[in-house]
Amino acid sequence: MREIVIGAAQMGPIQKAESRQAVVARMVALLDQAAEAGCALVVFPELTLTTFFPRWYMEDEAEVDAWFERDMPSPATRPLFDRAREKGIAISLGYAELTPDGHRFNTQILTDQAGNVVGKYRKVHLPGHSEFDPERTHQHLEKRYFEPGNLGFPVWRNMDAWMGMLICNDRRWPEAYREMGLQGVELVMLGYNTPSSNSQNPGENTELRQFHSDLSMQAGAYQNSCWVVGVAKAGLEDGHPLFGGSIIVDPNGQVVQRATTEDDELLVHACDMDATVFGKQTIFDFKRHRRIEHYGRITSQTGAITPDGEAL
Ligand code: CDT
Description:
Nitrilase/N-carbamoyl-D-aminoacid amidohydrolase; six-stranded mixed β-sheet; 14 strands; 25% helix; 25% strand
């Protein structure tokens, strides 16, 4: 048995005016709770340190840069890294990354239990749009503020398991899980900020949106026989609702823990990495069953094209 007690540290809303120091204090409180519960690894959401700023349209580059971190750990997050090291807890957290040569990414990192950064992932599937869209009920400007990730979908050996990360919208794309599944991934950690309503379809209710979120993560877990830990930033941020519903999903695709609030809330589960083995050796034994000669379109084409040549 390779058991890792994992904490999914859902965060409640973070208002625009809230400082990183105040947010980090909340994260440290969740980490302390996780230590009490025996967690060895704690996962925090996408863009954990601030409000979900891509809902705001900005033109001033300096104003944009103020939402980004130049280093990780940064001065503001140092107390979190110090506490994690002291407690022997590995952490994964999302933040907006500004590189020394001026590139901006939506990033998630992973540490080991000694506090060393062992992995970095940059979000590949950026949703939304790049210009102000008056037709929408709210803006989602990730395509304005971030470049698509340039690191692929790596998997790292950490705590005697193969671990990978996704970020929010990535969870809806089966290719993302499969890239990691093909590297033997046993645990996928992901954070999300998902608005409770669809800015282009007022008829879509929150229950349906939560269902799509769960469905994507449960399918990713089952089809790659891995654990998925999906952690929300939730609640009313400056008048904009984000749904919660953080979940831990087992390699059968079943939800074993679910958040019940839209606040700071810790889910805890003892995840046995050996529970991934059966699926990987049977129904999802990729080397025996995959038929790559029929999958060419997956990497040669982005949009759908009907057999009579119509691009959809
Ligand atoms: N943060 C993020 O990726 N959110 C998206 C919302 C998409 S709405 C344009 C998500 O897929 O949950």
